[in-house]
Amino acid sequence: MKRVFACPQGVSLAAVAAMLVAGAAQAQTVPAPQQEPETQVETGEAPAQNPDIIVTGSRIVASGFTAPTPTTVIGEEQIASNAQPNIFNTIAQLPSLQGSTGTATGTFSTSSGQQGLSSFSLRGLQPIRTLTLLDGQRVVGANVTGVPDISLFPQLLVKRVDIVNGGASASYGSDAVGGVVNFITDTRFTGFKGNVQGGITTYGDNEQILAQAAWGGAFADDKLHIIVSGEYAHDEGVGPGNFGIDLAGKRDWHLASTLLNTGVTNNGLPQFNYRDYAQPYQYALYGLINNGPLQGIAFDVNGAPYNFNYGSNGVPLGNGRVSNCYPGNSFCVGGDLSGAVGSGASLASELQRITGFYRIGYDFAPNNEFYVTVSAAQVKTNNQPSPGYNRASLTVQCANPFLPQLVRDRCATAGITNFNFGSSNGTFPSPHVFTDRRQYRFVGGLKGRFGLGEGEWNYDAYYERGITLSKIDVNDIVLQNRYAAASDAITLNGAVVCANAAARAAGCQPINIFGGFEPSQAALAYIMPANGPFQHTRLTQDVASVNLSGNLFDLWAGPLTLAFGGEYRHEFYRVNADAYGAGVSPISPNNAAYPADPLLNSALGSNWAAGNYKNGGGAYDVYEGYAELNLPLFDGGGIGRANLNGAARMTHYSTSGTVWAWKIGGTWDTPLNGFRLRAVTSRDVRAPNLSELFAAPTVTTLPNFANPFPPAGAVQAFQNTVGNPALKPEIARNTEVGVALANPSWLPGLSLSVDYYSIKLDGVVSTLSADQIVRFCFEGNQAFCGGFVLNSPVQGGNFINVQPFNLASWKTSGFDIEASYRWERPLGLPGSFTVRGLGTHIREFRVDAGIAGVDIEERAGANTGNTPDWKWLAIQTYENDAFSFTVQERWFSDGVFGNQYVVCSTGCPVSTGNHPTIDRNYMKGAFYMDVGGSYNVTSNIKAYFKVDNLFDHDPAPSPQTNTGLDVNPALYDTLGRTYRAGIRFNF
């Protein structure tokens, strides 16, 4: 991995220069059809016949132009040596990428729809603020957030990936707030090549298979070029584990670590306590009476009652609480952990991807091409969010015929007719989420160069039509009111039936919830219909774009160069959901499939325990034009060489009006050999995406939500997330200043750079969490009190509404550092030794919610998120004509659970929503070592191996405040040591 500081004549890393000119194709430049001469690897200069190859930091195409925005380039060799089944994994390792999503993230969620979605996040600003391109062109989103799925890209044909570490909206348009990731494919590939790879973890799971092949041919005197490629990959995934703390594959690092809430804020002790082996005390694996005079009676697998072991020396108090335990979120420590659901979530989604890519290009004149590309791809994933069905608020009648006689006698003695009951329903089928994303993309374009006056101009014009068909289907989810009706049994005419007559008429079948008795197939069909929750989405993207660049005229220090162009874009989506989740809607085609049921809410839906998807749709149009200018300031004369670069873009959104983006910066190659200064500042924009504007409301189940209002305790609630069509674009100010030592004559091959960055983002589209909304209301801020209900007597009546607004502002700053050196014939050995290191230090990541009473939150160094203080990647490689060997280190620093916490043990201040008190606030970082190598079997065949996480380093606990899995897969490796091996060939 190498950092490019300029266009090829100024590139410090010789190998990068070689990679750039050895056949790499770009959206802006058409390679000359004739054979290129050998690259001058000692100086890093491009060959004279093709000097105009650029990286993505600018749209200017000009020999010798140096862009002021730092751009990291990952070449074909680096991609191959990392030996990942998905190119996404290689790019996501870069320190400047924080918070990217992949197969190991999102597996705990049922409703997000992002399971297995591989998307990049630069600077920790989330994937929606990173613009991902394919050959400089936009790609239709893989879900309604607008972010693409890298798994759908034609990966074998990728020659390099450019990562622009800074705002690029003025050059490339909306979403490029954190930067740009541009995949450059080989549009002139000829021959036949392929790759076959397999992998497995040290725990015997996540088996992987990858098969890739590509063919390219040149015809009609090298004017007609045809490329075909296809790929198949399958990752088996990891998980799920079981109830309790046992993970899949004998992984032993899950300790059910939790921040336990005492519920007391002003007694001088910390409100939150970090503890391992946290156990929820409102439910058990096969059932637990959790309130009233019988509180503490649990049921074993055979339905026999016993006294539940709460841990913490806890004794049930009869009011729903347990002595010596934590009423704020209803946990004890130790005891019977068998009903905890956290370890039952998948650690990595199973993923299967199939891609096909076709390109036909015809040179209708020298250096001028007409081309058509067609790609079709499918990615399917599945995961288990959690096992069973966690229910803590069921009312059970003492007359229930399934209830053991001993407990019925206790009811009579206590003078009660019913009691509260909670269960993990350990014998229920576990829910599974299946996603199926199919993408079809068609591009037709012209690109090349033409003479105008005494200069030469480059042009690139294309039309793209993209279609994504996304399906999310959930199996084995409970309809809550039907579950409640089926669990309420009576004896009628000698038979056990559902107590509710209307439910019986609708097909209700009774279930025995006391013990490990499996429901009958008829009962399961009633409470878990075969047609579970689903969300079927169609997204389309139409783009028409034209870009030109060339020299206007010569000045005292070189040509004045201009790039300009325009683009039209239309984005559309429509989503249909099942009627049980969405409710009756004229745009839902599926209502007729569901019979009327008096127990269910047919108007509003939200009947499922999770996965309550809604119907929706929306569209917007974008019109934009830009211009970018490069002005040479001076060249030679003992003062070095410098240029000034500026760009402006006007964009009109049909939803929110017109907005401007701009940038201005420059570089100075000083008289000091190899020493360069660069700086750029920009105004960048991100328009709200379809999901934020027109989101079909989504409903997320919060099974153990901490309710601070009397009677305080954990309740089940629904989080309703809805869109806001009145949103405006976000505006960012991005500044970068850097110094670089690039290939000095006194030590050729050395490269050093340090860049400071600062990003201030205003009008951020964001929401408060459900917990924050409730806590701020509880603390007296009435502005938050109108959007939730937590003490509803109606089943499913508790909810918290969450909606995005342009309220927040973010500010982040830090440093990027890179060093590399290539040593030819080390210690007299044949070949070369290369060392490289890339690091990012986040000085601050301040989140201002923009709401009175909500303090600014500092996220830098919070390892429960994705912005550690330091993140490094180091690589050492020895290679010769026969073999290569690589060692790679990945490291990020120790951190905290959250900077908002006040650490104390006694004499604590009053704990608040802004600054809660806690007894421990430390989260260990991680160090991973990877090794790999290759052997040239023949000149055309190479065998290779790779071991990731060589020492099988376990992740640090990321404590939860509910029943989730205590891990942060956005930062930590959750799978363990992984072995891979394969063969590449090229004929």
UniProtKB/TrEMBL annotation:
It comes from the Bacteria. Residues 1-27 form the signal peptide. InterPro entries: Beta-barrel_TonB (IPR000531), Beta-barrel_TonB_sf (IPR036942), Plug_dom (IPR012910), Plug_dom_sf (IPR037066), TonB-dep_rcpt-like (IPR039426), TonB_rcpt_CS (IPR010917). A motif (TonB C-terminal box) lies at residues 970-987. The keyword Signal applies. Residues 449-950 form the TonB-dependent receptor-like beta-barrel domain. It is found in: Cell outer membrane. Its main location: membrane. It is a multi-pass membrane protein. Pfam families: Plug (PF07715), TonB_dep_Rec_b-barrel (PF00593). Transmembrane segments: none annotated. Keywords: Cell outer membrane, Membrane, Receptor, Signal, TonB box, Transmembrane, Transmembrane beta strand, Transport. Residues 67-180 form the TonB-dependent receptor plug domain. Belongs to the TonB-dependent receptor family. This is TonB-dependent receptor. It comes from Sphingomonas agrestis. The lineage of its organism: Bacteria, Pseudomonadati, Pseudomonadota, Alphaproteobacteria, Sphingomonadales.
